[in-house]
Design brief:
This protein is mainly alpha-helical. Helix content is 70%, strand content 3%. Strands 1-2 form a two-stranded antiparallel sheet. It has a two-stranded antiparallel ribbon with strand order 3-4. Strand 1 (122-125) and strand 2 (128-131) form a beta hairpin. The two termini are 17 Å apart.
Amino acid sequence: MAKPLADAFYEVAQVKYGYMLLLVAAALFAKYGQVFQGVKPDPRNKSLFAYIWLITLYFFFHFGLAIAYGGSLSEIFKIVSPFVFFVLVAYAADRWLIYALAIGAALTILINAALLPFDYGWVTWGSVHTFKGYYFFKTDLAYALSFSVLIYALYARNSITSVLALLTLIAAVEVVLSNSRLNYLTFLCVVIFIAIKEGVSLRSIIRYGLLFGLLALVVVLLYDPTKLMGFDTSNEAAFTQGRSVTWGHILDAQADSSLLQWAVGRGPYADLILSADLRGIGEDAHNAHNEILHLLFTQGIVGSAMYVALWVKTFRMSRGPSMPTWAHGTAMMALLLFMLQSMTAVVSSFASKTWPLVMVLLALRELSRDRGQRQQADSPL
């Protein structure tokens, strides 16, 4: 429940560390409470030991890169933090977890909405005045809102209740004002997923989608066909906000890599170093702005393989023998949002990108805890 507060105070390092200490203490307290009450451990916890070993191996892989190329422990921890978070909560979570996640999701939507009238929640990005809420980047806000709606829908058993409809409407307004164009798609995917779960036919979704798409096209044509929310669509580099230029530089540099660099990468700040080199000729690559390019460029094939293996293991441990029917497909939808975000941003280095996916997987893990709890999981929350 406290995660939105940690996101809001991203500038204060003590808040982040304080939140992690609180999370560790709460997990231990809950776990020992279950032991004293005689609660049987989840049989899937046995897999967590192998999972922890893989996390440890991945940590020391990054530690070695930091020694060889330069880096920091805080950066390493940010990369492994979603998996550490999963371990902590998976050991101790129970049926109350979904309530905490739902409250956190609602707070994320409502607190950011409360900032709409205030300058603090806005920033000028390019030539456009965009809404960012209490996040640093507008994309972080839109991404968090998409996941918040998905998590609350999971709490509501993917049934369109009045509260879910209201939260979705408020979140939609915020996403539009954020002008995070790729996240228009992620948010739309969530809305379509919930509609299908509610029983709306795919034909109806397509029909209404074409109708609203036609209306949007008319508005764009009347406004300016080459300008979408202030961004020039007639120029690829301008429309992608320089990402296409960045991808070209990264690909060129990767093509010139040695076998060792292909294997273990060039270090955690390789894309930032490339940025510094290119500034001398008037270019600015910043970071890779694409998760696959970032992983390959900084960690190589070995590090990328370990990272993917950790996510595969996380997904497997979130499954159970008695997943409620109404929850089917939620994990894949969460993964889709994660992958879409990865197309134009680096996500592995930011808890605001990775933790929402883990939260969904933890909720699903608890919903499918064992067959004996299926009736309880299927009852109204």
